[in-house]
Each structure stands twice: as structure tokens, then as C-alpha cells.
Design a protein that fits this description.
The protein is of the alpha/beta class. The protein contains eight helices and five strands.
Length: 188
């Protein structure tokens, strides 16, 4: 959070400003939710009206650390995935599961290319294309469309493994690459 505050003060990132969630959601064309699981429902409910008709990229991870457990283990949600829960809370918003397998540390190094793919899932093809075009502006990142939103159940389960590798110091900013994808399968 301190790094973000310093960036806001220096104006190093064009178009970056601070705002309360409802105000930010009202102004934004595309929303990105980056909160812990325990804050997901309340945050989504606070922007429900402003998010209607928009795309929301949900990065929420159902990790045990949300309830005092290990960050290398998942909580199993009745809705299936955190992104599916987001879709139920915001029925008039198109939810896309995204950024779950890219470490926050790598994303904060925004001037450096990221050696990682971004796995996404969602039920609306046009929204996935829009999101893919935005995500692929991040140097080094390629989007892999994993299918409908229910695939978020699988995407979200990869994160505890990556966190475990980082904790074990096997690597830093662990990510994932999907190989041998036919270029014809790209979303756009």
C-alpha cells in the first residue's frame, strides 16, 4: 500500500488516482477487484449499482489464510469459485476471472516484463476479448482463455501452489506458462 501511495504522490502512472470504491466503479469502464476473500462480498455489494453493465475482473482467491489458515491451501466455496460468487452477487455485471496466477510482486514491478501467462475464464466472449486486449498491454503477459466462468474453480486452485513455491524460495514471483497453444486459438 505504501508503494501505491508513493506512486500517487509522484504521478508516475498516468490516469492513476485515488477514489472510494463506488466513485471509482462509477468512473471506470472496466473494474478490477483485488481484495481478500473476506472483503469480496462487502466490496462487491458497495459497487453493485455502479458495476451494472460493466466488466469486472475478479482476482479474489479463496485461500485458507482468509480464516487464519495457510495461504497454500484453498477454501471450498458453495458457489464453486470466488469469481462465480462474484457473478452471483453482481448478476448485471460480466465477471471474468483473471490475474489469479500472476503474483502481486510481479505486477508491482510495472516497468519490467512479466514472464507469465494470465489464465482467464468467463461466460461472455466479447468481454473476454476486451479483457485480453487490456491484459496483454502488460509486457510479457499473454492471455490464455480457459473457457467458461466455472473454470475459475480450477484457475483459483493454482495460486496456492505458486504461493507455496514462493514461500519455499524455489522461485520469486512464481507464475505459469501454457505451452504449445495454437496461435489460431487466440481470442482476437
Amino acid at each position: 500500500m505504501d508503494k501505491i501511495k508513493r506512486l500517487l504522490e509522484k504521478n508516475e502512472i498516468p490516469n492513476l488516482k485515488a477514489a472510494a470504491n463506488p466513485e471509482a466503479a462509477k468512473e471506470a469502464e472496466i473494474l478490477i477487484l483485488t481484495v481478500p476473500l473476506t472483503a469480496q462480498s462487502a466490496t462487491l455489494l458497495s459497487v453493485k449499482e455502479e458495476a451494472a453493465g460493466k466488466i469486472l475482473m475478479d482476482t479474489t482467491e479463496p485461500l485458507e489464510s482468509a480464516i487464519g489458515g495457510s495461504p497454500t491451501r484453498c477454501i471450498y466455496l458453495p458457489e464453486g469459485a470466488a469469481s462465480e460468487r462474484a457473478q452471483k452477487i453482481l448478476p448485471n455485471t460480466t465477471v471474468i476471472c483473471a490475474f489469479n496466477n500472476i503474483s502481486s510482486g510481479a505486477l508491482m514491478k510495472f516497468r519490467e516484463p512479466i514472464d507469465c501467462d494470465c489464465l482467464i475464464s468467463g461466460d461472455d466472449l466479447e468481454s473476454k476479448i476486451t479483457v485480453a486486449r487490456l491484459i496483454e498491454k502488460i509486457p510479457g503477459v499473454k492471455v490464455v482463455d480457459c473457457g467458461p466462468l466455472e473454470r475459475a474453480q480450477i484457475i483459483e486452485k493454482i495460486t496456492p501452489l505458486l504461493i507455496g513455491l514462493n514461500i519455499k524460495k524455489t522461485c520469486t514471483d512464481a507464475g505459469i506458462r501454457i505451452t504449445s497453444i495454437d496461435p489460431e486459438c487466440k481470442l482476437y
